[in-house]
């Protein structure tokens, strides 16, 4: 333990300063010296030496102002050199060494003490470079014969810790002053030896504090239950402690100091358990006691328990009072979590069901999943169990812990508006429900289970950025809740007159897509209107209704021109994109009847163009269903108009027949007309000749068109033949029949 | 909250999917569960491509962190693309507000 006087540490030590420092803080040096030289240090010799050297000092009149770098190492040297084993001998030998080595001093030494040890060389021999270790060795041995000790080299070496090449010349002129200074240092501490006793009390301060006896590696155990600890289990507090803080390795040492080791090594899990439980029954250790079982040990313990069960063994006698493990008595799974292992007295071949962590599955979904698992579980029952019984890493967490972790995860997924947040899932299963209802027999009367999603009350969080009262400015803090604009981007429409054709086309397409998207958002709002209407409280209903009307109006207007007629151009434009066709097909069901009819008219009017544009996508048939719905709501005159539109100009019908959608549409119209005629005797269809004429032309076209160019419709209405039978003779009817097939 | 794809994957729980990771490993398995980070748990997994990943032979179930997934291959008939588009539109609308 080296304690340097403060001054010597900080600066390059000049001897004078050191001197002063040393003189002033002799007390410290004294103790220090005591430490380094030990109790057995013989003071007398030192004092004598000191006197001798002091005389030498006066005689030579050495300047002591030489700055020798690295002086502070000398203390180090001394302590190292001393090597506490050597004690008095060492000090003596050291002094001798110095004296002998230095030619100047040697002379003095020789004068004063005529009998240096004959083993030591009489005079300076050529400097030999000894390594520091060698020197140390020599020093330790004390009177070992030594080659010329280059005194300077000793001290130099001490600094360098290795062989030092010092030119003799350098040595000769330097050797005095460092040596002197060293001796001064050496001598000085011994000057007031008697004051040492007074410093006995101070010793304790100087000595480094006793080593901290807390061997806890890592953070000390937290006594208070921190936020978010897993639920308390009816097991020992100590064990709980371990579970809560698996990271803090509590060394057994402190426990052993105070208590006998609670669990000896190599104890069977059974006895372990008994031991563990008996303190439970008696009364727990004070909370400071470290845990008794590591996580792995506990897992192993439980594994050994579990391993017993699949063989259908009896309930273990190890479990006292059912308190140790909630393993078999878990709470009923909340919120439809399928957590929790089956009780062991279930079918022994049954692998535990895979727990799905998703909250709130649709009951059908759940049914599907359980079916799946049952199908698969049977095959793998045996092998799975074997595997499990040997798995050393299972049961590291208790059931409750697992549930707790899952609950945390799932809590984040609770939403205030499930319809919005969970749109896809909800609608998907709604559609499935509808599909199933349709497929089911009405006689079966099974109720399809509906999905009821629990809703969490919405808590309004208004974010207010940090503000300080009385401050002039506002903090510019950008965070997740309050993102800062990085760039102020301003949208400028291009006013370039000269645009290339391609660009024009692209722009138009983009424009169309943009329009379509806008309409889609309106459409979605309209679609959701009903649902929201039901949910929203009374006061808001009117507002919602208003909004709904506006939306619908907007939708209608987007397809119209300024004079309230449906814009053909707009319709065609929209329908040129696949998305647009989808949009229209969905839109038709929401539009008011006249509007819808107008659109269908527009479609049939422009069918050839649309057919051409649809060549690539072939998705016009999406429109069949909504259009058929519209057609069925048409009046007879409207229907006739529609048929007329479809036929349109010369040659249009041929194109129509060539296109699948066209054919389907045509058949739909005809079928509807027939239905009207046959069902309602007062039908006005036949009032004017238009209908008849139109049907005639259709039949003509059908007959003339080769069968190859007549595309097959999506479906053929059954009453077409009866329609045609009114207008054509049998021969033609048969031909038509063939064509229709 | 970005729950669009969480909702989407929830409807695929129980179906067989192939997950391709960014380290080029492809894992085929049954989708067991998914969370809001699109971490995926698969059961009954098998490495689809040539078994040049033999260390996966003994693994039956796995948990895949969402950020390492490159692709998820789905059965086409279990997906309603129209509905997905609508969901995306709704989410976009929500974010605008």
Automatic annotation (TrEMBL), chain A:
Its main location: cytoplasm. Residues 115-125, 335-351 have a biased composition (Pro residues). GO terms for biological process: deadenylation-dependent decapping of nuclear-transcribed mRNA; P-body assembly. Residues 357-369 have a biased composition (Basic residues). Residues 213-222 have a biased composition (Low complexity). Residues 468-610 form the mRNA decay factor PAT1 domain. Residues 108-129, 185-236, 335-392 are annotated as: Disordered. Coiled coil: none annotated. Keywords: Cytoplasm, Nucleus, Phosphoprotein, RNA-binding. Residues 196-205, 377-391 have a biased composition (Basic and acidic residues). GO terms for molecular function: RNA binding. It comes from the Eukaryota. InterPro entries: Pat1-like (IPR039900), PAT1_dom (IPR019167). GO terms for cellular component: nuclear speck; P-body; PML body. Belongs to the PAT1 family. This is Protein PAT1 homolog 1. The gene is patl1.
From TrEMBL, chain B:
Transmembrane segments: none annotated. Residues 4-78 form the Sm domain. One of its GO terms (cellular component) is precatalytic spliceosome. Keywords: mRNA processing, mRNA splicing, Nucleus, Ribonucleoprotein, RNA-binding, Spliceosome. The keyword Ribonucleoprotein applies. GO terms for molecular function: RNA binding. The keyword Nucleus applies. InterPro entries: LSM_dom_sf, Sm, Sm_dom_euk/arc, U6_snRNA_Lsm2. One of its GO terms (biological process) is mRNA splicing, via spliceosome. It is found in: Nucleus. Its main location: nucleus. Pfam families: LSM. Binds specifically to the 3'-terminal U-tract of U6 snRNA. Plays a role in pre-mRNA splicing as component of the U4/U6-U5 tri-snRNP complex that is involved in spliceosome assembly, and as component of the precatalytic spliceosome (spliceosome B complex). The heptameric LSM2-8 complex binds specifically to the 3'-terminal U-tract of U6 snRNA. Belongs to the snRNP Sm proteins family. Component of the precatalytic spliceosome (spliceosome B complex). Component of the U4/U6-U5 tri-snRNP complex, a building block of the precatalytic spliceosome (spliceosome B complex). The U4/U6-U5 tri-snRNP complex is composed of the U4, U6 and U5 snRNAs and at least PRPF3, PRPF4, PRPF6, PRPF8, PRPF31, SNRNP200, TXNL4A, SNRNP40, SNRPB, SNRPD1, SNRPD2, SNRPD3, SNRPE, SNRPF, SNRPG, DDX23, CD2BP2, PPIH, SNU13, EFTUD2, SART1 and USP39, plus LSM2, LSM3, LSM4, LSM5, LSM6, LSM7 and LSM8. This is U6 snRNA-associated Sm-like protein LSm2. It comes from Sander lucioperca. The gene is smx5.
